[in-house]
TrEMBL record:
NCBIfam families: alaS (TIGR00344). Its EC number is 6.1.1.7. This is Alanine--tRNA ligase. Transmembrane segments: none annotated. Its cofactor is Zn(2+). Zn(2+) binds at residues 555, 559, 657, 661. Residues 724-751 form a coiled coil. Consists of three domains; the N-terminal catalytic domain, the editing domain and the C-terminal C-Ala domain. The editing domain removes incorrectly charged amino acids, while the C-Ala domain, along with tRNA(Ala), serves as a bridge to cooperatively bring together the editing and aminoacylation centers thus stimulating deacylation of misacylated tRNAs. PANTHER family: ALANINE--TRNA LIGASE, CYTOPLASMIC, ALANYL-TRNA SYNTHETASE. It comes from Pseudolactococcus hodotermopsidis. The gene is alaS. InterPro entries: aa-tRNA-synth_II/BPL/LPL, Ala-tRNA-lgiase_IIc, Ala-tRNA-ligase_IIc_anticod-bd, Ala-tRNA-synth_IIc_core, Ala-tRNA-synth_IIc_N, Ala-tRNA_ligase, Ala_tRNA_ligase_euk/bac, DHHA1_dom.
Length: 860
């Protein structure tokens, strides 16, 4: 109705464009209806019609935390707007706004339910509202009703509010809610009309701003709010824009949505899945920066709220279909891209699921401990650990903390972040992560020996460091050193062991959450103490064997991978960094080009061959010289002492390595490369999986292959390639038929087209906009024209998709087609060239076609 109304007032309906801004680095997202029309407002492009209207999808993420808490906050919303570029102004904008809202032919709102705010000095708007029939007591002056962002176009705005009645005003405060800008649910802003009237100048008072020579109108009506008003919904979420999603969340969770209860999780999920579906459909993908980080944050926030509702499996991707069905009439792209969107969302959910359980458990443990201590602030170290280890954005931890009645030590988090950044910089040089050194740690001389052979051992606690002081006893978080330890300290790309500390009675008294090398080389255990630890006491240390098993599989596979890279790519492919984690391995190496698919296949085959050969993995300690004689390769960034460990895998690999490994390559099970990419000049990276993770990756690919088999209707997997080749041949044949039909259509246009001959400066020409499916159709028309005696110059323009294509052909010896193309192409924001008899250009501004055609004669 909104678009139809303004179309009846001479407006052109502009389409809703992608949420990802095109050629606008100032915006992360399209965040309003006017954002897509900036080129018109700043004068860089002149619109064909100065009156425009649109319904534009938009994303705003400046207050994500409020989504679900309030009745009207959203990350993605639709903004309805009508715009005038130097055409009509205040009188028409206010008149039409009142007509649309109150006319029985349109929204038919009772006039006495509408209230308008205006800028106190803007008497013109005040008087115009009176003229159209608004009562004076429904006009409220508000000092903030002035739009400006520094120097440039600015002006007053007048906002329209709908009074939802006394049931939304339990204290019966009335119009004071609006006049004093008190947060309320009674008076809902449904529309804002911005009157771009002045040229703002920060050096002078607002009263001295000069008027703009060309005044503009920019309005915004939130569709979600308007629907809530029309449908009488308690909040925006009880409308038919959201309720179908909420109903499906009810089915997935087994919980019931109560419009008047605490439904924050339902609302967050319903809101965020809309943003994810639309943004991914428009080409944005979850990641660690910019738009990608926003999407990752939204997805993780929605997943956490799913957990609050008892949904512990991947579920967001199941909501994409219902989002697409709700929006299909105006945004069919969501359903059209449904499969792709679902796969991206599901993959991101699965990635997050691998860490979310551990992170949630840690959060619950932290909160429980704080409650026993009557504390209300979560430390910066704990919130940083949730961020750095478990992928919880700080905003998410803050939100969970707030729900639990706690706060976050922001400064402590910032300090931990800075320390991590310093360790990262140090890692570039040293090849490993190290805790920030202190005087206490530097002075620590207590001996500590790491045992490669034991998973559990009894030992003495020799040192406790807490808050950068050496102490005799400690509770809570501390760093400790033992005389001997089975815990591997992070080094050489291998992550640290985790595990537990038990007392003499066998009770767990502390959890080991990290192990780093102290300045003097001792394994320094970071421990979360459950009771109390005492220096000099005897304790039993036990590593998490399941975690260690995953790490050693990946570490030994890294050695096999390094050898395979040498065999396939050459000895120049040496290690430039690695990470051997629980679920995957990452290996950086020097190489001058991307590794080809065939090379990757051969590397993967070789590594699996050595796994299947069941080679023993042997380690010996010797001196560096002897190790080199054995052919051992030194690993990136390692510093070796007088005695080194040499890890030998059959006759396939010999390396210096201080890490832990499997006893036999058969324990690795399976090896799968999942990604190869460049990370810098001359440096490549391989991500790979082993064991169970590798098996699951192969099964996922098998599922995709089966889907393809079904799609191409292949009886057997072995026949898929032949089936696809046949389909490609059929497609090629169909394309030829399309080309033939296009040529026939072009010929059909030519009879009438070539009769419309004009003359300018003594030269005859034909200039026309034509229907064409591609540039080939234009060329075919030019070929037909050449055989006729109709004119000396031919200018054809076609809108093909979102672009314009220009063709110029010439039979004149005085006018070269290439020169004329260069003169005309700027009208469509294009460029091009060609031969004297024919030239072409492509442009990004189809709106300029009419102006181009009008200017052909002037350029002859």
């Amino acid at each position: 109705m909104f678009l139809d109304f303004f179309k009846s007032k001479g407006h052109t309906i502009e389409p809703s464009v992608s949420l990802v801004p095109v050629n606008d680095p100032t915006l992360l997202w399209i965040n309003s209806g006017v954002a897509t029309l900036k080129k018109y407002f700043d004068g860089s492009v002149i619109p064909e019609n100065p009156r425009m209207t649109n319904a534009q999808k938009a994303i705003r993420t400046n207050d994500i935390e409020n989504v679900g808490k309030t009745a009207r906050h959203h990350t993605m919303f639709e903004m309805l707007g009508n715009f005038s570029i130097g055409d009509y102004f205040r009188a028409e904008a206010i008149e039409w706004g009142f007509e649309l809202l109150t006319s029985p032919d349109w929204f038919d709102f009772p006039a006495d339910k509408l209230y308008m705010t205006y800028y106190p000095d803007d008497k013109d708007s005040y008087n115009r509202w009176l003229e159209v029939g608004v009562s004076a007591d429904h006009l409220i002056p508000i000092e903030d009703n002035f739009w400006e962002i520094g120097a440039g176009p600015s002006g007053p705005d007048t906002e329209i509010f709908f009074d939802r009645g006394e049931s939304f005003d339990p204290e019966n405060i009335g119009i004071k809610l609006l006049a004093e800008d008190i947060e309320n649910d009674r008076y809902i802003e449904i529309w804002n009309i911005v009157l771009s009237q002045f040229n703002a100048d920060p050096s002078v008072p607002r009263s001295q701003y000069k008027e703009l020579p060309h005044k503009n109108i920019d309005t915004g009506m939130g569709l979600e709010r308007m629907v809530a008003v029309i449908q009488g919904a308690h909040t925006n979420f009880e409308t038919d824009l959201f309720m179908p999603i909420i109903r499906q969340i009810e089915q997935l969770s087994g919980k019931t949505y109560d419009p008047y209860g605490d439904n924050m999780s339902f609302k967050v999920i319903a809101d965020h899945i809309r943003s994810l579906a639309f943004a991914i459909g428009d080409g944005a993908l979850p990641g660690n920066e910019g738009r990608g980080y926003v999407l990752r944050r939204l997805l993780r926030r929605a997943v956490m709220h799913g957990r609050k509702l008892g949904i512990n499996d991947t579920f967001l991707y199941k909501l994409v279909k219902i989002v697409g069905e709700i929006m299909q009439s105006y945004y069919p792209e969501v359903l059209e891209k449904r499969d792709f969107i679902e796969k991206i969302v599901k993959r991101e959910e699965e990635t997050f699921a691998r860490t979310i359980d551990a992170g949630s458990k840690l959060f619950d443990e932290v909160v429980a401990k704080l409650k026993t201590e009557n504390k209300t602030e979560i430390s910066g170290n704990d919130s940083f650990k949730l961020y750095d280890t478990y992928g919880f954005p700080l905003e998410l931890t803050k939100e969970l903390a707030e729900d639990a009645g706690f706060t976050i030590d922001q400064n402590g988090f910032d300090v931990a972040m800075k320390a991590q950044q310093e360790r990262a910089r140090a890692a570039v040089v040293k090849g490993g992560s190290m805790n920030k050194q202190s005087e206490v740690l530097t002075a620590l001389q207590d001996k500590s020996v790491f045992s490669y052979t034991e998973n559990t051992l009894v030992t003495t606690l020799t040192a406790i460091i807490q808050e950068d002081k050496r102490v005799k006893t400690a509770k809570n978080l501390a760093q400790v050193v033992f005389a001997t330890t089975p815990f591997y300290a992070e080094m050489g790309g291998q992550v640290a062991d985790h595990g537990v500390i038990k007392d003499a009675a066998g009770e767990i008294v502390a959890n080991v959450t990290d192990v780093q090398k102290a300045p003097n080389g001792q394994p320094l255990h970071t421990v979360d103490i459950l009771t109390e630890l005492f220096e000099g006491e005897t304790y039993t240390l036990a590593i998490d064997r399941k975690r260690r098993n995953g790490i050693v599989k990946n570490h030994t596979a890294t050695h096999l991978l390094h050898a395979a890279l040498h065999n396939v790519l050459g000895n120049h492919a040496t290690q430039a960094g690695s990470l051997n984690d629980v679920d995957f391995l990452r290996f950086d190496f020097t190489h001058f080009a991307a590794v080809t698919a065939d090379e990757l296949a051969e590397i993967e085959r070789q590594v699996n061959e050595e796994i299947w050969h069941a080679l023993d993995v042997l380690t010996v300690e010797t001196d560096v010289a002897t190790a080199k004689e054995m052919g051992a390769m030194a690993l990136f960034g390692e510093k070796y002492g007088k005695v080194v460990r040499v890890v030998t895998i059959g006759d396939y690999s010999v390396e210096l390595c201080g890490g832990t490994h499997v006893a036999n390559t058969s324990e690795i099970g399976l090896f799968k490369i999942v990604k190869e990419e460049g990370i810098g000049s001359g440096t490549r990276r391989i991500l790979a999986l082993t064991g169970r993770q590798a098996f699951e990756a192969f099964k996922a690919q098998e599922t995709i292959l089966k889907d393809v088999q079904i799609l191409v209707k292949s009886p057997q997997p072995a026949q898929i390639v032949a089936k696809i080749e046949n389909l490609q041949a059929e497609l090629k044949s169909a394309q030829k038929e399309v080309d033939s039909l296009s040529a026939k259509m072009a010929s059909a246009q030519s009879d009438e087209l070539f009769q419309n001959v004009q003359t300018a400066n003594g030269t005859s020409y034909i200039a026309a906009k034509v229907a064409a499916s591609d540039a080939g159709a234009l060329r075919h028309l030019a070929d037909v024209w050449k055989m006729k005696e109709s004119s000396e110059i031919l200018v054809l323009v076609a809108q093909i998709g979102e672009k314009a294509t220009l063709l110029v052909a010439s039979k004149s010896s005085d006018i070269k087609a290439g020169n004329l193309v260069k003169a005309l192409a700027p009208f469509i924001d294009g460029r091009g060239g060609g031969k004297p008899d024919m030239a072409m250009a492509g442009g990004t501004k189809p709106a300029g076609i009419a102006e181009l055609l009008d200017n052909v004669g002037a350029n002859l």
